[in-house]
Design brief:
The structure is a homodimer. By secondary structure, chain A is of the alpha/beta class. Chain A contains 9 helices and 10 strands. Chain A is globular, with a radius of gyration of 21 Å. The first copy, chain A, binds a DNA duplex through α3.
DNA sequence: TAGATTGTTAATCGATTAACAATC
DNA sequence: TAGATTGTTAATCGATTAACAATC
């Protein structure tokens, strides 16, 4: 098996392929060519073949790709042929919303604990879980083998909580707080940067409105 | 003023500069060099100067950049020297969470209406607003001059709602539904792709765990 | 003036696209 | 076999980094 290091740009596209192929399966599509994927997804056929060949020879000359096979392979590459144990820290509006986000659950990200420090929120039921106080965090991480934390605190608390999450041995953080976390270990942090998306909209609307002027 | 078309990669970094400069202002930093920004943000000094020079000559040889000035300039470039009129469609957990996200409000994105179709939700109060039925959508968009919609429906409803949003003359959509929207006009859509972030974490955790094997 | 740091041109690097031989 | 489509090498394009003259 080849093992050059895969370009970041390719990794960013993998979830899109995964999503697209799932749709194809739902529509009972059995085989598909890079050309067909190209037309549906808007990448070039060449790029699609290049991307996939970073991981193996999934296709067949003269035939194309078997949709089920390709989907299974990409799932495996993405590491979602297993279940992850997840905790949410911060059970405010956002934490509650995320806990109800079925899409995550469906792909094997199982929420096993929810934490907060606010006495008005601790003890509340969210789905089948009861919000626990952060006092119990380390204990519960151990008990449930928590691997990933969804960080849904406010901006001010985020850094301190992240460090505690790191120290508890959690491997990954999905950070919803609008702040860059500084970590000591190689814990993997992914930022949502919701504000950046909004600023991007703002930028593009502005550019358009000024294009009509000068 | 120069007006070549600005690389996408640069535009994606603008919000990060904006955020960083705001922090510097809060810490009463008056001037800063590309070298200092470089060290704090982890880009090269060269890249920072290249990025900024897409929009004008904001610095001064031998001095660097005035933090306040640069922040004001980037704000203007991002189009956030004005207030935007925003509506939320979908007042479930996510819509409610987003409506409470003060960060958006603080940068001038003002939520003026919230909509849903669920009879259990319509009429409910969220902050100072009452959730309205989608029947009133077009009327309210007109009344409040809505420019941006936060799309917080489920995946199934997203496409149909997006088309209605488009037809009502809204200019931009921040899409929280895990689906690619197909638009007819040049309405600007930004996708949050929360799942993609989670899959990215999964991928990196998997790569690390298999590095120890082979 | 001397020192610092920008703005900008040129060099390098990485990612995308084109082309085509291999092969199902 | 003939047609289709992959896997892969080579060419192009775009973005990042290095270097340095301009200048505050």
């Amino acid at each position: 098996m080849k093992k050059k290091n895969v370009p970041k740009a390719v990794i960013k596209r993998l979830p899109k392929y995964h999503r697209f192929l799932k749709e194809q399966i739902n529509q009972d599509v059995v085989r598909i060519s890079s050309r067909q994927i190209s037309q549906a997804m808007g990448f070039t056929a060449s790029q699609i073949r290049q991307d996939l060949n970073n991981f193996g020879d999934f296709g067949q000359q003269g035939y194309g790709y078997n949709v089920e096979d390709l989907y299974a392979n990409i799932s495996k590459i993405l590491g979602i042929n297993k279940t992850y144990s997840v905790a949410i820290v911060g059970a405010g509006n956002l934490g509650t919303a995320i806990s109800n986000y079925t899409q995550f659950d469906r792909l094997g990200f199982k929420i096993n604990a929810i934490f907060d420090v606010n006495p008005c929120i601790v003890g509340k039921s969210i789905g089948l879980l009861e919000v626990q106080h952060m006092d119990k965090f380390e204990e519960e991480v151990e008990k449930h083998g928590i691997e990933i934390v969804y960080l849904c605190t406010n901006m001010e608390a985020a850094q301190a909580v992240a460090e505690r999450v790191e120290n508890a041995g959690v491997k990954g953080i999905l950070n919803f707080a609008p702040t860059d976390l500084v970590m000591k270990t190689d814990i993997y942090v992914e930022n949502t940067y919701l504000i950046d998306k909004l600023l991007s909209i703002s930028y593009h609307l502005k550019v358009r409105s000024t294009e009509n002027d000068g």
